Amino acid sequence: MLRTVALCWLTILAGCSRSAPTAAVAPPRHQRPAWLKQGIVMAGNWETLGHSLRSGLSAADEVEEFKAERTEEAARKLKDLGVTLVTTSFYKGGGMKTEADEIEATRQFTQIAHRVGLKVGGYVGGTLLYETLYLEKPEARDWRELNEWGNQIYYPGGQTHRVVPCRNNPGYQAFVKDLIRLGVEDVKLDLIHFDQMGWWIEPRSCHCKYCAAGFRQFIRARYSDAQLKERYGFSVLDGVIPPPFDLFEPPVRIPELINPLMQDWAYYRSASMGRIYGEYDDEIGRLNPEAATDGNPFYSQGSNNGFQSGTDLSQYLQHGDVMWTEDGHHASWTADGRLISKIRTFKQARKMGRSVFMYTGGGQWGVHDPLSPHELRLAEAMAYNDMNLGMVGHVTREGVDLTPPARRYIEFFHGHTKDLVDTESVADAAVLRSFASVEFHPSQSFLSTFLFEQTLIQTKVPFDIIFDQHLKDLKRYKVLVLADQDALSDEQAGLIRDFVREGGGLVATGNTSLLNDWRRERRKLALADVLGMDRPGSALQRQFGKGRVAYIPRVEPAVEPPRAQMSYFIDNSQWKLPKNYAELAAAVKWAAGGQLTSEVQAPLSVTAELAAQQGTNTWLLHLVNYDAAQPVGAIPVSLRIPAGLRVREAAVETPDGAARRELAVRVSENTLSFTVPDLKVYDLVLLRFDRQ
User: Fold this and answer.
1) Measured between alpha carbons, how far is 652 from 152 in angstroms, rounded to an integer?
2) How far apart are the C-alpha atoms of 51 and 635, rounded to whole Å?
């Protein structure tokens, strides 16, 4: 019966798909689902039964467990544990007829979940399970990615029954939109998750005819004939193909990307993935404005993702609601004093108005780890991830496996949604990640930026991570940090110059502005007048216009960095504070005029995130102790608040056992001072103001 119902829908869908005219490109989606702001506590188990059996990943009772996880009893257990969203299987890649029974099971579970008050997300796989799919849709053979050798690309890990599709292929794009219609209109999913929503790691990128044609069109649109001749030496592009690397597998050992075609290929891959993800998101929003979109773009904190997988978050996160990351760098404090976190990922997503799904517990990558307890991961998410605690556990017939502290944290989260909603960071500094710098020269620009960010995280300097387009809106920041941003355009240099001239602070290191955005070396720095030097030189501090400028020759790694290559990865063994971290942090404070909005005196294992709630005159100070086994004593805090505000309430709350405590606040001009009594893992300081 289940198969009959599902096949009836699929037959109707196929008929509609054949007769429907080609739709115009939808306008950008602006309305985002309101339920996301109510707080997300996600649990998941999204593997289809067929895939588990075929892959050899199944347990002896896999079939019985699959059915038991999708009952009303299981749904109620999840609801009672504080879960708000369940991500379950929808479509893996074997064909809609082959997977019809499981699609129908998801439709019925969605009805159950909605009855008990849960939202449901459906997983859409990004591979072709060709053994069954090609029998259903012979044309799917033409959807495959083809590498530079003309070969299809298999999924790694021995799963050679899966091959990678090209998301630029119009046939595959139409098929995915059929899946979206099925999921949103019939199954009534509240969220669709797109796995493998990024290009495969270089040199395993697609060189099919659609990618080749799209690449040439992209270059033509990007440059005038005169610019093409200046960049390539010719302007006729008919003979241009995606650049070969003459490799079957990574790593790409080129130390720096100066080849203009390879640069433009990285720009194209990033732009096309952002566009495709946006088209999926627009289609979901067109069908149901309250249905959400999330994607897994292979994002890794320690990699130059724009080059390697075509994941440029400045474009990608203009679309969708949530980004998945399976980055294994879970919150922890190591014996040799390294703070491991996902703070960079959260900050990039929040700057783009999005949040992140990650494993805060359960599943293959979220297993119990004494060095990274669930409460620490949940504390990090509460502080930095905008109303989203991530995936708290793996769904079983018993619900999810939560430790007692994890249950307290989830309860605390639900009890404070009114405080946590609609906040934005109060940041003094902005750290620029210029694409032409960090993506094309990772061993210098990306490494320096990464270590400067690590400095600001651990010294508790309030900062945001920004992208190229944000240089047009620097007024909210006191200081701009350019950590060896060697490749800047003349326009970007002009925006930075204007910011400093009007009173903004600047901290620059290394070869900042030595190259233009094509990575061609200038005779003198583009910011020579601002920095007071024509070429990189000695450390200095100076005035430029109304602003302060600090230059530091180098961010000095404390351990041997990775070798210089384009397949770059900063493993957490290299996440030690740089040797000159104190000098870097002091330069930011000096450039800010000697005063930061928040100053928290606590060990390097503690981080602080200051946020303001829109429209309520409420500030929140999140304190997270990554050395969870070592509680911290009294923590002095000083905050500088805008003129005209008077403190009405100051209190600290925690899920770690202590009751709410009022704080004694001392006021001197516009500076508030108080002491947080103690910190186990997470404290939330609430400050409510009245206008005088």
Assistant:
1) 57
2) 51
Query: Per-residue pLDDT tens for 372-422?
Result: 999 999 999 999 999 999 999 999 888 898 999 999 999 999 999 999 999
pTM (two decimals): 0.95
Task: Extract the tokens encoding 228.
Answer: 């093409």
- 365 Cβ contact partners less than 8 Å away, ≥ 6 residues apart: 326, 328, 359
For residues 489 and 492, what is the distance between their CA atoms, to the nearest angstrom?
5
Q: Is 521 helix (H, G, I), strand (E, B) or coil?
A: strand
Instruction: Retrieve residue 608's tokens.
Output: 């602080």
CA 594 – CA 598 distance, rounded (Å): 12
Q: What is the separation of C-alpha 657 from the centre of its chain, rounded to a whole number of angstroms?
A: 32
CB 375 within 8 A of CB 628: yes
Q: Distance between CA 401 and CA 655 in Å, rounded?
A: 19
149 and 252 Cβ atoms separated by less than 8 Å? no
Residue 377 CA: distances (Å) to CA of 332, 358, 624, 684: 8, 10, 10, 15
pLDDT, residue 362, reads 66
Q: Which among 609, 599, 671 is positioned nearest to 635, based on CA atoms?
A: 599
Please answer whether residues 249 and 225 qualify as being in contact, where contact means their C-beta atoms are separated by less than 8 angstroms.
Answer: no
DSSP annotation of 242: P
449-480 residue pLDDT tens: 999 999 999 999 999 999 999 999 999 999 99
Query: HSE-up of 304 (CA within 13 Å, CB side)?
Result: 34
Distance CA 101, CA 105 (A): 6
- Give CA–CA dist 60/520, Å, rounded: 60
The token pair at 285 is: 């929003």
Greater confidence, 16 or 291? Answer: 291
Query: What is the pLDDT at residue 46?
Result: 93
Q: Looking at residue 6, what is its pLDDT?
A: 47
**C-beta neighbour count of 413 within 10 angstroms:** 23
User: How far is residue 571's CA from residue 242's CA, in Å, rounded to a whole number?
Assistant: 30
Contact 399, 80 (CB under 8 A): yes
Asked if omega into 251 is within 30° of 0 (cis), the reply is yes
Are 467 and 354 in contact by the 8 Å Cβ rule? The answer is no
Determine the pLDDT at residue 366.
Answer: 62
